[in-house]
Design brief:
alpha+beta; about 700 residues; 7-stranded mixed beta sheet; 16 helices
């Protein structure tokens, strides 16, 4: 591939709801640029960008893939992102390094939630958008309906640049709205044809709307429009570029990528209307160490900086690090500085990616996207830069995992393999987290949804050869007491030689704080001072297990009030045992209760779903604390819900809101569990103890 100036690079992110045809469109673009000799198919597992074994098996995209190619003297970096919500982290990676987005909307079915989310992500990144109405070849394809939906959701700036022509119910060509010319598909070619008579009124109406939209982009054009003057070709191009750049104009194209119809026109439009990486001029960054905000010029002549936006832990190739150069240039066989780890990295061979194919290059300039292997101290979101000018580029904000399950090996002895496999998978996926819960002795994995965790489990098996089961995590309940009692603990043992003797009277009562509060009120040396620490230690060790269900005990105050000792047989161990005996007896008499963890939950949903959400939270024994209206017709519901009721909430919320809702959750406190819950937990705990015996 030849070298390109920054003005001739286009980084375009393809986004959509799952199944809209992004990967098929990528395939058609690659075919048209001559790098493929045939069109691969998602259903056959033969596409360039769905190359992961999991993607081939499941027949949909899981990872963001880069496909670099050339078209009419320009370099296109096509960023093919997944459409399913569980892989939103991958979408965030792709959109962060894009300079423009093409959002696909299927002609049958129209705007789905994925398209709405794609629009929001593109707006967050402040990059221009084009819509592409795909699957025009399918029966009941309805371009006009899709456009009307887009206008109602995304504003009147949504403007068709093409109108489809149908003959005998089949997609036969389109009208180029800007030039008022019609074209028909003729095999692999396009031929000029007349604008169908029954479409001239629609064309006139859209042309008028289009002129009005571009007039609003510039004062000079506005004056011309109101004076009734015709726009020149230059005026139209100027208005289109200004409108697309500021988001007031959103072009709509159409086609059927599976038949390679209407794809070349889109490719031409990407070159013509989508911005080069340097159009923004600068990129925001911070000085490493000081956090002072600076701006870096997007130019090859500046000092080098690049953001690592994706990492792949390939079991065969090793670690592949994807990055976008934001300023300066990067050469093979050079040394760069990682401002996050404060370590240098040796760059060996740089390459560009086309799916899994690596295309070697000696240099990558500002605005371009590439990859490198064998970086040992670099992870996703790190900034690589010139050591003389250490900077930190804006990081990708990944969504927090919301679904947590416990993972267990199917075969004994696989724990180590599971641990190292999970660690590698965590390295390549910032939305996946692994945690060892020391209290419940479970390995917990967290992700965005059930499908996400299912893919993780599948990768564990295919890549690292281990099979696992997933189950609900154990809830970390606690126990405490509700009344004050005074009890005796006596440990006396005679067995020839030295015996053992420890004797205590302890008052137990509800304590002011979670940890044990230990006091002593001993008069006349009934228990010598040197044994006080042993009594406290005996209590602390005993508190790890409560008397109801074996959960740790909290909020306990213990006062050593009396006891006795033997000048020869007493020892620290004897008093420790005496304290634990008093503990067991005392807690059983002090009205012990089970405490359950309560989560603070904030749910964000469109107005229309409020009734369902509140009803569902009530069913989960939740307490609604408040409701706040947010921007864009979103409501925030604040509630406190028992953590045990929240395990599958991510899945249920998605189903209730068609994936439009999201939530955050954090531990708030412990409170007494209702009798019905406590009985069930105690029964299960006793059964587990019996099984262990």
């Amino acid at each position: 591939m030849k070298e390109y100036t920054v003005e001739r690079i286009r980084n375009i992110c393809l986004m959509a709801h799952g199944g809209a045809g992004k990967t098929t469109l990528t395939e058609a673009i690659l075919f048209n640029t001559g790098v493929l000799d045939r069109l691969g198919k998602v259903v056959d597992g033969t596409t360039t960008t769905d190359y992961d074994p999991e993607e081939i098996k499941r027949k949909f995209s899981i990872n963001t893939a880069i496909a670099s190619t050339e078209w009419k003297g320009y370099k296109l970096n096509i960023i093919d992102t997944p459409g399913y919500f569980d892989f939103v982290g991958e979408v965030k990676e792709g959109i962060r390094v894009a300079d423009g987005a093409v959002i696909l909307v299927p002609a049958k079915g129209g705007v789905e939630v994925g398209a709405e989310k794609s629009w929001a992500y593109a707006r967050e990144q402040e990059i221009p958008v084009m819509f592409y109405v795909s699957k025009m070849d399918e029966e009941h394809a309805n371009f006009n309906e899709a456009v009307e939906q887009m206008k109602s959701l995304f504003g009147r700036g949504v403007t068709p640049f093409q109108l489809p022509i149908f003959e005998n119910g089949k997609f036969a060509g389109f009208i180029d709205v800007i030039n008022r010319k019609a074209k028909k598909f003729d095999g692999n070619k396009m031929v000029d044809t007349d604008v169908p008579a029954d479409m001239t009124d629609q064309l006139d109406e859209i042309t008028e709307q289009f002129k009005e939209t571009i007039a609003e982009t510039d004062e000079e054009l506005m004056e011309k429009f109101f004076s009734g003057e015709d726009f020149s070709k230059e005026d139209i191009q100027k208005g289109i570029k200004l409108g697309i750049a500021d988001g007031s104009l959103v072009p709509v194209f159409c086609g059927a990528p599976i038949n390679n119809q209407g794809v070349e026109t889109l490719m031409d439009a990407i070159i013509e209307y989508m911005p080069a990486p340097n159009v923004k001029g600068t990129v925001k960054a911070k000085k490493a160490g000081s956090g002072e905000e600076i701006e870096l010029k997007i130019s090859p002549d500046e000092k080098f900086s690049a953001l690592v936006f994706k990492t792949i832990a390939d079991p065969f190739v090793g670690r592949i690090t994807f990055f976008k150069v934001f300023s300066g240039k990067l050469s093979s066989d050079s040394v760069v500085y990682n401002s996050g780890t404060e370590k240098t990295e040796k760059i060996s061979q740089i390459f560009m990616m086309r799916g899994k194919k690596q295309i070697n290059t000696d240099v990558l300039i500002a605005g371009d996207i590439g990859a490198v292997t064998k970086l040992s101290n670099t992870s996703t979101n790190d900034t690589l830069c010139d050591q003389s000018n250490p900077v930190v580029l804006q990081k990708i904000e990944f969504p927090v995992p919301v679904l947590t399950l416990a993972i267990e090996p199917k075969a004994k002895g696989d724990e180590e393999k599971i641990g190292s496999g999970l660690q590698r998978l965590q390295d390549e996926d910032p939305t996946f987290k692994v945690e060892l819960n020391t209290e419940t002795r479970q390995t917990l994995i967290s992700g965005i949804g059930e499908q996400h965790l299912d893919v993780i489990v599948s990768k564990l098996k295919s890549r690292y050869g281990v099979s696992v089961n997933l189950k609900d995590p154990r809830v970390p309940y606690r126990e405490t007491i509700k009344k004050k009692v005074k009890v005796e603990g006596k440990h006396k043992k005679q067995s020839g030689g030295h015996g053992q003797y420890g004797h205590v009277w302890i008052e137990f009562e509800p304590g002011p704080e979670e940890d044990l509060v230990f006091e002593e009120k001993i008069f006349g040396g009934a228990v010598p001072k040197q044994y006080f620490p042993a009594v406290e230690k005996g209590l602390r060790e005993s508190m790890q297990k409560g008397v109801l269900a074996g959960y740790p005990v909290v909020n306990l105050k213990a006062t050593l009030v009396d006891g006795s000792f033997h000048p020869v047989d007493s020892s620290e161990m004897a008093f420790k045992i005496a304290a634990s005996l008093a503990y067991k007896k005392g807690l059983a008499e002090a009205n012990p209760v089970l405490l359950e963890p309560i989560s603070h939950v904030e749910v964000f949903v469109p107005d229309a779903y409020m009734g369902d959400i509140i009803g569902d939270l009530n069913k989960r024994r939740g307490r609604i604390l408040g409701m706040n209206p947010m921007e864009g017709g979103i409501q925030q519901v604040i509630a406190e819900v028992p953590s045990a009721e929240m395990f599958k909430y991510a899945t249920d919320l998605r189903s209730m809101t068609q994936a439009r809702g999201y939530f955050t959750e954090r531990f708030e406190r412990y409170e007494e569990a209702p009798a019905s819950v406590a009985e069930k937990v105690i029964e299960e705990a006793k059964k587990e103890m019996q099984d262990e015996e």
